[in-house]
Design a protein that fits this description.
about 200 residues; mainly alpha; homotrimer
Chain lengths: ~200, ~200, ~200
């Protein structure tokens, strides 16, 4: 329960860039759903924030890392605002590059299932529950978005898309790497790439 | 992260009266929705509790103030029971004064966005995330109510009512007052009044 | 707020067997709903985990017992996987013994409302809020399941089944027993049995 510093997988600045990129695309996906549902600018902003930060916030609350990083790092909090603004003004253009968004979203999924697992492990969880929280980090925000927007949560459906399974694989590989003391920048990148590729192939 | 005593904006007893009044009207709004949906007395009670206390509980969990005040102060917990009972027995009469309820609900909204921001700041958050939690305090319970009752969350909709925006303004003003060291009983009252008036004008 | 060791009502091994049995039947109920909604194996697993562990996780987060027991004890985490697997392969058979499942679910309801109240009290809550968290332990997972699967939460409905009320009685009796210093293995068993019987009679 004693919070240690979560391990950074990559060089500090690289990791931060990756984090913010992942948050940005998750937020854009949330904002787009809000636009399609004719929510107003407030609804777009709220759904962008919840989609982008929800998974990490749930993980942080469950491991006792409060206040969550999303509330202490202004970059985390501000990035969804930027994404919401862009989608608000440019959503026809954003819709047009939706397949590019899907690829970026897959990158976010791959990144967050690995990072989330590593952070939960650093807070003292066993590898298996840590992997469960890694999956939560990757798909939790989307699940909250779907509940708020009254969609059947994509994480539960299989007729639609294979979404949760790549995150589960990425988190499971990460847990195994940690268990066998093989977790480092190279293997972490491999795990991210694997989950990302699996998701992209399922698109 | 070390919980300090949250600052009380107003005189202790005045603040408690205001808190309980806000909780009461939020609870009444939740109970009324339950009645309209033909939920039973248990459903009315649960929805009253969730609507009245949900926003503050989410804030307290996120800032690490557990157990939340809603579970340690019997007044907080008991007030929604009272509101649920009144609505259960008198809902035709309560419906008739619904516009009065709406005005009281606006007062709760104004009060809680300011108090919530101040409490989050007192727990060490920066002003901007503190304002986000102030908004959460004001609208979170209603969002939970809408999700449980399977309504599109009012906080996301604009075709219906301008609900979240006044809370956002009130929380933003509070954060600015705190940032510039101007936060006190008088300015806090002004912020509450501003958010309240904005919401009432939008009714 | 200082976590004490939660009191075990029964002999350690007996309590663990009861806990896991309760988790198993809650998980089976969640998995069955997922099957009926045509969710895939991931959806079945997620809904089993959420239904079985959700109530206890919410309670643990609210009393500050993080990481929740569900994430530190592999038995808690693994049992829903087992239930999900069984339902996935054998759901026609499971459907056929649904009335048996309902009786076991009633046992889980009775057990968790009492255990949940006792644990919340052990973490320093007053008896009344502790009872509220006991009810949350018993019905919270089912509420999360219903929200994710887009059903009207059973806890709010009365046209369907008397579900929350027996949990409320069991938790209330537990709180009274604690308050009057009468809480022990025998009286706890009586409270569990009472809530269980009430629920079974309402089936």
């Amino acid at each position: 329960m004693s919070p240690e510093v979560p391990p950074e997988i990559f060089h500090h600045q690289l990791q931060q860039v990756l984090d913010l990129l992942g948050i940005f695309v998750f937020a854009a996906a949330g904002a787009l759903m809000a636009v399609r549902k004719n929510f107003d600018v407030i609804g777009i902003t709220l759904l962008a924030e919840v989609t982008a930060l929800g998974g990490g916030v749930i993980r942080d609350v469950l491991i006792g890392a409060v206040p969550p990083a999303a509330f202490t790092d202004l970059g985390y909090f501000g990035t969804p605002l930027l994404a919401a603004g862009l989608v608000f003004f440019l959503h026809p253009q954003v819709e047009r590059i939706m397949s590019a968004i899907d690829v970026l979203d897959a990158a976010g999924l791959g990144l967050f299932c690995v990072i989330g697992t590593a952070k939960a492990y650093a807070y003292g969880l066993n590898p298996i529950p840590a992997a469960a929280l890694g999956v939560t980090t990757a798909v939790g925000g989307g699940a909250l978005r779907d509940v708020l927007a009254r969609e059947v949560p994509m994480v539960l459906r299989w007729d639609k898309e294979i979404y949760t399974f790549p995150a589960l694989l990425g988190a499971g590989i990460t847990a195994a790497l940690i268990e066998f003391d093989l977790f480092g920048p190279v293997t972490a990148t491999a795990a991210v790439t694997f989950a990302f590729s699996f998701r992209v192939l399922a698109l």
